[in-house]
Write a structure and sequence with these properties.
- The protein is α/β, with parallel strands linked by helices.
- The protein folds into 2 domains: about 270 residues, Glycogen Phosphorylase B (Rossmann fold, 3-Layer(aba) Sandwich), CATH 3.40.50; about 190 residues, Rossmann fold (3-Layer(aba) Sandwich).
- It has 17 helices and 17 strands.
- The strands form 3 sheets. Strands 3-4-5-2-1-6-7-10-11 form a 9-stranded mixed sheet, sandwiched between helices. A 6-stranded parallel sheet has the order 14-13-12-15-16-17, with helices on both faces. It has a two-stranded antiparallel ribbon with strand order 8-9.
- Strand 16, helix 14 and strand 17 form a beta-alpha-beta unit.
- Helix 15 crosses helix 16.
- The longest helix is centred in the first third of the chain and has 18 residues.
- The structure holds adenosine-5'-diphosphate-glucose.
- The site of adenosine-5'-diphosphate-glucose has 25 residues, from helix 1, strand 12, strand 13 and helix 12.
- Adenosine-5'-diphosphate-glucose binds next to helix 1, strand 12, strand 13 and helix 12.
């Protein structure tokens, strides 16, 4: 099968969070299974060019219609760790992708509406006719809309799978989006069964467009698929998902075992396996040395993630102090885009600066994240909501016991050592709490830290049980191929 992924991220070259990991990992798995996969991405000025091999111009004069005229683009092509990627570079005073950031601009909706249009124009002009186009999140929600409304006759019978990684960000716009992209016709698109937002009658909703126009819609775990339909976590799209329930499913993400694997990880100094954990202890020492933490007989707890309301920042904050209170060490690696949250953690960093048992690293650091997964004993994921969550799955692979809140994909991947009712004790792999108050988090951390101190052999058993879980792309890769096959033959 010939599959084209259109996305705003692909790890490690463009990664703001889990979306990048998924786009890369899924593409690799699909190729291993014998399919042809190509990726179309924006050419951001700030992406990691050191991860692209053989970058060259592949298509020089792509003119993308935009408002009444057209924007001249160059398309570059190169390999990102073996995946063939096309990067679109527009030349216009808008400077869409030369802003030193991936997201966070006032005109993000126009930047990605343009990217979606350019991706389709590139497919059409370069005579690429994939069997399936796979789009991700709000940034590419307009792809199926434009494909069906404007490109169908030139392009043929492409099928679209649309994956939602985060319902909170849906992409909104007004009539300017329609005029710019050539969709025009506001009275048509401003209908509730097309793009009109379910709650703001003056807005078009990109993600809703993606749901309405795609042949299959997925989110990134089965439990989150349920939450999105039946709880406020669908951020107003529950009704739309209900209408299109026949094409909506949850497919649990995987992690790429070529990249996230303590046996071969290129960023950690000591490799280790489930059978021989000596290397993990050495990585803990290396991590302490690197972050200037003292080397004492204490458990080390980590948090890695975007510092965003979604991630339960009030509980992240509490976890730091509770770990210290319970004689554990804490390492945080996180970046905040929201100024208030950033200021808060900057302040905490200053307050805790001289404490030899805690380190807060504020920023994005891929290499350091690997060492933290490898060196920590436990990882906390106290999210308010979590469509899938990759950090707990990576933690499990690295023998780092997850302590998670029971929401979204965390429910599908972590099974409480003491209380899980579905899994046998020898199949359980972490700790789960449910409420959002500090006491709930404390109860789970307490049990984990208690086990580490009082029953080290039991803790070790829990570590190896977690490591034996296979959350690779093997199963989800198969699931996505089944979805592609189904929509191809409909
Ligand atoms: N400061 C930092 N430095 C280095 N690395 C960092 C980092 N902050 C985060 N990362 C890395 O980025 C990834 C984050 O994964 P998450 O599952 O938390 O994704 P996120 O919430 O961004 O995305 C959304 O999409 C993903 C993918 O579908 C869903 O799993 C998730 O629930 C949903 O919210 C991990 O690989 C992590 O190691």
């Amino acid at each position: 099968m010939y599959i084209v992924q259109i996305a705003s991220e692909c790890a490690p070259v463009i990664k703001a969070g889990g979306l990048g990991d998924v786009v890369y990992g899924l593409s690799r798995e699909l190729e291993i299974r014998g399919n042809t996969v190509e990726l179309i991405l924006p050419k951001y000025d700030c992406m990691r060019y050191d991860h692209i091999w053989g970058l060259h111009d592949a298509y020089r004069d792509l003119w993308v219609p935009w408002y009444g005229g057209a924007i001249h683009c160059s398309v570059y092509c190169g390999w990102v760790h073996g995946r063939l990627c096309f990067f679109i570079e527009p030349h216009s005073p808008d400077n869409f992708f030369n802003r030193g950031c991936y997201y966070g601009c006032d005109d993000d909706n126009m930047r990605f509406a343009f990217f979606s249009k350019a991706a389709l124009e590139f497919l059409q002009k370069s005579n690429k006719r994939p069997d399936v186009i796979h789009c991700h999140d709000w940034q590419t929600g307009l792809v199926p809309v434009m494909l069906f409304e404007n490109y169908k006759y030139e392009m043929g019978n492409q099928r679209v799978c649309y994956t939602i990684h985060n319902f909170k960000h849906q992409g909104m716009g007004g009539t300017e989006v329609l005029w710019a992209t050539g969709l025009n016709n506001p009275s048509y698109y401003f209908q509730y069964d097309r793009l009109r937002d379910n709650f703001n009658p003056f807005a078009l909703n990109f993600m809703k467009g993606g749901i309405v126009y795609s042949n299959a819609v997925t989110t990134v775990s089965p439990h989150h698929a349920w939450e999105a339909r039946f709880t406020p976590i669908g951020y107003g799209l529950g009704h739309t998902l209900h209408v299109y329930q026949d094409k909506f499913t949850g497919v649990l993400n995987g992690i790429d075992h070529d990249f996230w694997n303590p046996e071969i990880d290129r960023y950690i100094p000591h490799h280790y396996t489930q059978e021989d954990l000596e290397g993990k202890a050495k990585n803990k020492k290396a991590l302490r040395e690197r972050l200037l933490l003292r080397d004492v007989d204490k458990p080390l707890i980590a948090f890695i993630g975007r510092l965003d309301d979604q991630k339960g920042v009030h509980l992240v904050h509490h976890a730091i102090y509770y770990a210290l209170q319970r004689d554990a060490q804490f390492v945080l690696l996180g970046s905040a885009t929201e100024p208030g949250i950033n200021a808060h953690f900057q302040h905490e960093k200053r307050v805790l600066n001289d404490n030899p048992d805690v380190h807060l690293e504020l920023g994005f650091n891929e290499e350091l994240s690997h060492l933290i997964y490898a060196g920590a004993d436990m990882i906390v994921v106290p999210s308010n909501y979590e469509p899938c969550g990759l950090t707990q799955m990576i933690g499990l692979k690295y023998g780092t016991v997850p302590i998670v809140r029971g929401v979204g994909g965390l429910v599908n991947t972590v099974f409480d050592r003491d209380y899980d009712e579905k899994y046998l004790p020898e199949e359980r792999n972490g700790y789960v709490f449910y409420d959002t108050d500090p006491y709930a988090l404390e109860s789970a951390m307490d049990r984990a830290i208690g086990l580490w101190y009082q029953y080290p052999e039991e803790f070790r058993k829990l570590v190896t049980q977690g490591m034996s879980y296979d959350y690779s792309w093997n199963h989800p890769g198969k699931d996505y191929l089944e979805i592609y096959e189904r929509i191809r033959h409909k």
